Amino acid sequence: MEEPEAIINNEPEVITTENEQPTPETTIPADVISFKHVNIAHKKLRVLTDISFSIKQGEFVYLIGKTGSGKSSILKTLIGELKPEGEEAMMIGYDLLKLKTKQIPEMRKKIGMVFQDYQLLQDRTIIDNLMFVLRATRWKDKNAMLNRCEEVLTLVGLETKDFKLPSQLSGGEQQRVCIARALLNNPDLILADEPTGNLDPITAEEIFQVFHHINQTGTTVFMATHNFSLIDKFPSRAICVEDGKLIDSLV
């Protein structure tokens, strides 16, 4: 069966030459994300112009705006799907302006991504979904892999659901699996793209609680959402995309 590319890019390791970016140091800079005067285009159409913002390690930041405003373009830029232009575009030590295609898989190992539509392998159990990601990111010790799966499932309250198929879980439970998957490799940053878009209000609130709990452990969270009622309930810094520009609640 062909594996979904969006979940993990399992390309072979690449040896960096002198002319390529070096792999960033283990220590992540104070600014996990730093954009200065950046332009973002999609299919040659300018989406965002001259945007600047930074997110510090350990912050929880909402990315808000109307549908089609450019929120997803920012997230796609951060995972290497879109190429930015401008003065500076740094994420967890990687220079996105100079990022080579060969470096994208290694960069993505350092971030966790949570999708609105889950993107789980429907013919595999929850534990097998998680094991697939660990194998793709070159974990070797099976006992260590199983232990890590148990740890992240416990963190999201699904320690008794590991044997089930995705279709046997509710939407909220499937989203918890996605959060567990994003946590497997102890990411420096979690990017969440409308993670409660398909959920009822009560379940959506539970998912917000999970994200804020994860953030309290020190993980940086950058979440695109239009769930303003939950933003009011779980207040934090917000960056609004409007008319191709950014409006930061800190400014």
Please provide a written account of the structure.
The protein has 251 residues and is α/β, with parallel strands linked by helices. It is built from seven helices and ten strands. The chain is 29% helix and 25% strand. Strands 6-7-8-3-9-10 form a six-stranded mixed sheet, with helices on both faces. Helix 3 crosses helix 4 (142-155), helix 4 packs across helix 5 (171-183) and helix 5 (171-183) runs parallel beside helix 6. The radius of gyration is 18 Å and the shape is globular. The termini are far apart. The model is unreliable at 1-26 (pLDDT under 50).
Question: In a nutshell, what does this entry contain?
Answer:
With 251 residues, the chain is α/β, with parallel strands linked by helices.
Key features?
four-stranded antiparallel beta sheet, 10 strands, 251 residues, alpha/beta, six-stranded mixed beta sheet, disordered N terminus, 7 helices, single chain
Tell me the β content: 25-35%
Rg estimate, integer Å: 18 Å
What does the largest sheet look like? Answer: 6 strands, mixed
Low-confidence stretches: 1-26
Order of helices and strands: EEEHEEHEHHHEHEHEE
Helix content: 25-40%
